[in-house]
Amino acid sequence: MALATTENTTASLSRVEDTQNQHFGPAVALSCRECGARYDLGPSFACIECFGPLEIAYDFGRVTREQIAEGPANIWRYRSLLPVPADVASKPNMEPGWTRLVNAGNLARELGMRSLHVKDDSGNPTHSFKDRVVAIAVEAARNFGFHTLSCSSTGNLAGAAAAAAARAGLDACVFIPADLEEAKIVMASVYGGRLIGIEGTYDDVNRFCSELIGDELGEKWGFVNVNLRPYYAEGSKTLAYEIAEQLGWRVPDQIVVPVASGSQLTKIDKGFKELIELGLVEDRPYKIFAAQAEGCSPVSAAYKAGHDVIRPVKPDTIAKSLAIGNPADGPYVLDIARRTGGAVEDVTDPEIVDAIRLLARTEGIFAETAGGVTVGVLRKLVAAGRLDPEAETVVLNTGDGLKTLDAVAAEARPTAVIRPSLDAFRAAIA
Ligand SMILES: *Cc1c(COP(=O)(O)O)cnc(C)c1O
Question: Which domains are assigned to the chain?
Fold first, then answer.
């Protein structure tokens, strides 16, 4: 792949626009998050100058609330803010997004808060937030002529990528740690592609995929979270857009976001910033709180120690979808939490289980372990007085509890098993 730095920025950018704009909509270039070097849009993810991560640079035209509201009830209503062509909605895809924003009054009362919403991304087609990011990556794969869709996954991404590949008519070969929850293994395999279990952690899977991409075996594949990562990551912005639009075009005061690699959190921040810059919402400050499981909390540990450098850990937690021991976007998460006045916090496995049950009991929402992490951290931060109970708050549930049944199965049993007789029932409930 040719990575040409653009010496003469203006000239080469207009060239990029002429030839590629129809494929990538408002996206005009890749730019390095560290040194700002710009590159043509391509299947690249690291700066050749400084090895920093690349992200999409845009030239947004005029975007209005009305224009967005006329769009479909899925992420493509925001296509004018994403690296996708204008006709993207007409192509076979999973149509993720526009999930419900639940006014969680019962949970708010329980926690002593005034205004709390749950953004419930379990409602996506494969029951996690990953359908958003995969949808953008599939468009990039199509544009670059990749016929095989691949990824290294903590579980949800593998299912989302396999499903999207099936729908888009691409081959899939996805990689997961072999010891994942049964539901995630079944979901990643049922869509017909190849599913490879790797003996090791997610970080081992990810290292393996980096090696594979450098080999002739994988060099023509679209790895949604490796060589397509700049495109993939943009999908998370749609969470920020939807939350703001569903609140009546307002950025919430506080939001609690789970952290695995940290990509989602950094892009939610980017999404809010874009809405403010485009004048679609009022320019008000917001705080972003990052949530991890104690058994895999490298970012939280760095935050508490006041460090900028994140020391990798070996994960050991029931929140397997968040079990990334060496998070690529960890330093950016630290930065955003500090800059916005938020925080990074973690909760133990028992606290995760309690939080899953609390959310289910108060709001009728059954979250996967990642949702237990965000609600658990919310509860902990409110109790400690570190999150303002009077301010408008949104907490993310990024996956469906049916994917992580084991987390609560031991305590979720029938109250009693009886013969079908009134006497037996009376005795059982006595
Ligand atoms: C992947 C995932 C996340 C967040 O992932 P990042 O790597 O931080 O973007 C959150 N929740 C669930 C359920 C996930 O599968």
Answer: 6-63+130-232 (3.40.50.1100), 101-127+236-407 (3.40.50.1100)
